[in-house]
Amino acid sequence: MARLKTFRIGGIHPEENKFSAAKPIEVFPIPEKVYVPVTQHLGAPSSLLVKRNDTVKIGTLLAKADAFISANVHSPVSGTVEKIDEIIDASGYRKANIVIKVEGNEWEDGIDNSSAIIKECNLSAKEITDILKEKGIVGMGGATFPSHIKYMIPEGKDVDYLIINAVECEPYLTSDHAIMLEKTEEILIGIDILKKASGAKKALVGIENNKLDAIAKMQEVAKSFKDIEIQPLRVKYPQGAEKQLIRALTKREVPSGKLPIEVGCVVNNVGTALASYEAVQKNKPLIERVVTVTGKAVKNPSNLLVRIGTPVKELIDHVGGLPEDTGKVISGGPMMGKAISNLDVPVTKGTSGVLMMTKAESKRKKPLNCIRCAKCVSVCPMGLEPYLLQQLVDSERWEDAELNRIMDCIECGSCQFICPSKRELLDYIRVGKARVGAIIRSRAKR
């Protein structure tokens, strides 16, 4: 049997804990009120188009992307705009939110919310890209980069491969797994549409080998599509990072500081492919997504189809409430997700999961002295020296940190996970990246 593909250097295999892997997608009830963030994407905030007491329908444009890197925001519900308020988001900062009181279930004209599958697409690449922009489609793996920008291929560049990230290597999360089982044909039509938008010769879908049912179903349905290959991959974290996924599927290496287009690739998440299908074929904006709500002590780990703006607390109540021994609630997975301090924060386009970690799991041990074991070096998928970067940041040696490629860190957390001395490696590197990034931007303005 051929050896499964994976990326070349580093990587770890944390405990998977995919408790909700066998759970079908459950449609979450529409809440009485939603809190829709104006900024739920990478880039500039969108400009508000509504005000207090305005009536909106499902799909109404609430905020428009004016900047180059930005994304439109649409109403996930029908009702009345109660207020525009500054509300704490998952990162702990106060951000503008559109608070909508739900009234009825009225959709904007032209949106097809039926389950009918529409396969044929005769649009040009530019027309597809324009629709992605209009419907507010962003990367749904967590980064939330506005998707239309990826398909504005620079002059002189050619795309050989559209890479679809269906790896879902984060422990606990199963939302991508669930949509591959239940929305298989829609996803593959979406991939075909994105392949056309990019001009790619072939689409490669990477799925880790712990999702055999999803691999089998995607491979079977893909037989009716041209130049879409479903590629099983060895289970290894962080294979969902785009540079590692490109290496695993194509053996191409994205140079330091460069984007995938430099090696002829465009990368999107499998959830983005589904959202793209709905945008292009059904005229449906990105107003809902599947969220995994899970944890070792959670009564009913679930995959929930949730409207954007739904408070996280309501999802937690739905799966049995907050367990008594909860130490942290994480937005996302345990490796790259972020702890949230307020359960009233809303679901956004980038909310892939809500994880309730037990006190035992979430308690940090006291960091000890480095024992020079080099385990952090051996697992770093970017070939960095995390122990050294921590020392440079601690000493505020910013120039040396830049020379040692601190900006190449993808913040996967593998180094901190493997460290026997429980050193706070990633914490220091994140601080260093923020400082070095600011220095680089300041230098560029001179």
Give the helix proportion (percent range).
Answer: 25-40%
Major sheet description = 6 strands, mixed
On the 0 to 100 scale, the average pLDDT is: 95
Anisotropy-based shape:
globular
CATH architecture descriptor of the domain at 125-282: 3-Layer(aba) Sandwich
Unreliable segments of 5+ consecutive residues: none
Report the CATH topology name of the domain at 125-282.
Rossmann fold
Could you tell me how far the N terminus lies from the C terminus, measured between alpha carbons in angstroms?
Answer: 57 Å
Give the helix/strand class.
Answer: alpha/beta
Q: What amount of the residues lies in strands?
A: 15-25%
Rg calc: 21 Å
Determine the CATH superfamily of the domain at 125-282.
Answer: NADH-ubiquinone oxidoreductase 51kDa subunit
The total count of helices amounts to 14
Q: Give the strand tally.
A: 17
In short:
The protein is of the alpha/beta class. The protein is built from 14 helices and 17 strands.
What does this structure look like?
- The structure is a single chain.
- The protein is α/β, with parallel strands linked by helices and 446 residues long.
- Among the domains are: 125-282, 3-Layer(aba) Sandwich (Rossmann fold), CATH 3.40.50.11540; 375-445, no CATH class.
- 28% of the residues lie in helices and 20% in strands.
- The strands form four sheets. It has a six-stranded mixed β-sheet. Strands 2-8-7-4 form a four-stranded antiparallel β-sheet, with no helix packed on it. It has a four-stranded parallel β-sheet with strand order 11-10-9-12, sandwiched between helices.
- The radius of gyration is 21 Å and the shape is globular.
- The mean pLDDT is 95.
